[in-house]
Please model this.
Amino acid sequence: MPDYYSEPFLTLAGLTHKSALISWGAFYFRVKDSGKEFKLVDDDDLKHVHPPREDSIGARSKPYGDARVEVFDLAGNVVATALTSQTNHCWVSGLAPDTEYTYRVTVNNEEWARGPRRNWEKVDGKMGLGPKNKSYQNRFRTYPDPTKPAPGPFTFAVIGDFGVGIKKDKDDRRQLQIAEALEKAVEEHNVRLLLTTGDNIYRSGGFLNSGGDTGDEDDDWYFTYYQPYRYVINRVPAYPTIGNHDADETEEKDDRTQLVDNFYINERIAGEEAAGRVSIDPGLFYRFRFSSDVEFICIDTSKEPAVFDKKKRLYEHPKHQEFLKTALPETNGGGSPSWLIPYCHHPPFSAGPDHHNTPGMENLIKQFEKAGVRVVLSGHQHHFQHSNSNGVDYFVSGAAGKVSDKPPNKFAEAHTVSWAAEYHFLLITVDGKQMTIRPIGELSGGQLSDVRRRAPGGSAVNDPIIINLA
Model:
């Protein structure tokens, strides 16, 4: 009978100013060659592990046992506790706004993921499950009160088109290296949340009929999400948007159901649709605040031919148009946040070379302008690009896993200010009426490194991007 090894994971799946959604799960490996080699177990083969399972992680996963989640203040006092035997996640409430805490999960009287963990890394010159050498730091900081101004500057990060996986270390796939830089940024810059600009997971080879995993099972997400960002997503919540590789626009299968499960979307937005802050099925549209100053708006720009007009994108659906009218009011006043920050996958403006300005976005662009939006975030093109049109700054950040090394070819049409064909993520700080945006590349000498950008004419543009509200 083969031996199996279980590696436990923890996730800060959701966060508000007074509560935290904490989740746990595991991935299973078949042990081969007397413990020298480990092979990830496919979901279909989980029936062979002990005790047998059907799934391993995510909101729908079968419970591992009686669980207790404890949250501690920095003095080590228990300030909140939650119990569950029905799920592998639970909300812990009664927390104070903008306050730092630590947490612990205990399942069947054993601390979950205690001590050094095994990670997928280079072992004897090739990628594999390494020795136990790194432990979780389970801490987080609650959001500020959403009815009050932020007490100071705050920083968030943006990754896009990242889900290529780290099973093998390839020169044309740098997800692991960007993930390492992101982890360092979280530690050094007090990153409070993570946005994704879509294509959270690709099937192997990336495109339709290419074969391999698609993203509709738990095991597909180990190399693409849970392991690369392991020591980030246990500390800051991630907010996804849907890309063409997450939907069935480009692939044979729609990964949307699995994405909703692994990002705990339903658990986070329960009851919010009635309040006009969420619009789902078809599509994924939601908004959330960080203090009274900033509101993030997730816009689903994917196509779903099976449920909506095959020539249109989901933001054109009448149901979602109502959501957008509320989220993007024509006059940004009467209690609206100073910063309205839409984020989506398909870019309103892109100079290419693989993807250009997305057709059919004209009305959405007008809504941005009328609502006083200053910054829009997107992905799709595997570059960094910055455009400015009618007072709105548009950023493409689609190179957290792979990059297009060809130069853009339609600068004028995209109103391009600067660009870079470099692997990166965005590090963004909001300080009152000023926003600072830095595209960060791979670590250089163990330190964070700003991406070298170019203007359309070829000159270097390397200073951080500063945007000021009027």
Observations:
- The mean pLDDT is 92.
- The radius of gyration is 22 Å.
- The longest strand covers residues 19-32.
